[in-house]
Amino acid sequence: xxxxxxxxxxxxxxxxxxxxxxxxxxxxxxxxxxxxxxxxxxxxxxxxxxxxxxxxxxxxxxxxxxxxxxxxxxxxxxxxxxxxxxxxxxxxxxxxxxxxxxxxxxxxxxxxxxxxxxxxxxxxxxxxxxxxxxxxxxxxxxxxxxxxxxxxxxxxxxxxxxxxxxxxxxxxxxxxxxxxxxxxxxxxxxxxxxxxxxxxxxxxxxxxxxxxxxxxxxxxxxxxxxxxxxxxxxxxxxxxxxxxxxxxxxxxxxxxxxxxxxxxxxxxxxxxxxxxxxxxxxxxxxxxxxxxxxxxxxxxxxxxxxxxxxxxxxxxxxxxxxxxxxxxxxxxxxxxxxxxxxxxxxxxxxxxxxxxxxxxxxxxxxxxxxxxxxxxxxxxxxxxxxxxxxxxxxxxxxxxxxxxxxxxxxxxxxxxxxxxxxxxxxxxxxxxxxxxxxxxxxxxxxxxxxxxxxxxxxxxxxxxxxxxxxxxxxxxxxxxxxxxxxxxxxxxxxxxxxxxxxxxxxxxxx
Length: 510
Hints:
Blueprint: H1 11-52, H2 55-88, H3 91-125, H4 132-161, E1 166-169, E2 174-177, H5 180-184, H6 187-217, H7 222-257, H8 259-265, E3 272-273, E4 277-280, E5 283-285, H9 288-294, E6 300-301, H10 304-309, E7 311-312, E8 318-319, H11 322-344, H12 349-362, H13 381-409, H14 427-453, E9 458-460, E10 464-465, H15 475-506
Antiparallel strand pairs: 1-2, 3-6, 4-5, 7-8, 9-10
Helix pairs in contact: 1-2, 1-4, 1-6, 1-7, 1-14, 1-15, 2-3, 2-15, 3-4, 4-6, 6-7, 6-14, 7-8, 7-13, 8-13, 11-12, 13-14
């Protein structure tokens, strides 16, 4: 299938298909993390109402649920378009691994999406129609449904980073699932889910504190602002610490199965033992990268040149050079072609089994057979290097920010603050809180840039490069839809921001 048709696809089609998918994913991720983050905030607020039966807490819960609902609707719309693009723009990918990739997406649609769409209706329209306990359960189940939805989508994405639980069938020319649980419970998927969801909670917390800060500056809704700020800061601080811990685990997973991504993140060309972590170029923390990757300050970390030329790990494992992998990939492709030709012509089983043996021996490097030059396996280093630092730097800032907000929201220590406005926080801190809302999104999007740019040139790590995964379309068609989506998504984002701002200005109905 792949040795003739796919390599002749117009390069413009590949570039525009990648650009269109990136556009859709970036816009979609503007909505998803706020959905996951606000789900926790509104759940906690309604839980307090359930325990106290105080009208203030019900009004506060309704307020945060309205903001959640506006954002939730936009996220659903962009998510549907994103999933359709697998069939329209990446049909060869969908055909090649659809048996595996489609399973978690199907579970997400059947279970998680129906779950959240059912309970979100109860949450909005059931205040006077169901018991307080059932309504509270519906609120938490709405957030849980959104989180489960994220789980299955991240399982699918993690499989692209670390393909497990599958086997190639030379008769159907497709990868087929052999273990659903190995795919669903992949260590890479677990780490990715935990890190992604906790980072989403940070965005929800920053948004909550930012909205409260605006009210404080306007001298409005003092109780809502103070109480919600306490909740948002507490959620944000816990989430920031968890994101740091899960990020460390994710880095170890990347080091184990995607060493080139880690090398690109650090602009590390020549690795070794006891490698330092760069703060910026020229400034580094000694031995920190080795610890981040291996939990050992003297651990071995390969660089770009080591991976390209081949290396031997301290435990004696020999990693072939990229040139060797390319040759072995070509052997796998040739053996597959010979097997299919022989089977079609009725060749003897001995000949067919010989070709299958060659194919199976070299199958781990199948995707490298389509790499034309070893330089193609090096991802964009500048993008990965700076995106990683933006993500980590912002994460460290948020830990400090939430700790200060939490202390100030409780009015402690008052002797440190001047020009206080109701709480122990100075007015300038409220402006910083508002300014940090876009930074939270930039940090989150930067994390995805590292995840996806760091995987290049692979659609599926070591198995399928991007140019062998796209649909055979006219580049002009993809280009037109790219700009149509750009206009559509930008309009949707502008509409959401406008509605959200109006709702915030209107405030809760206390």
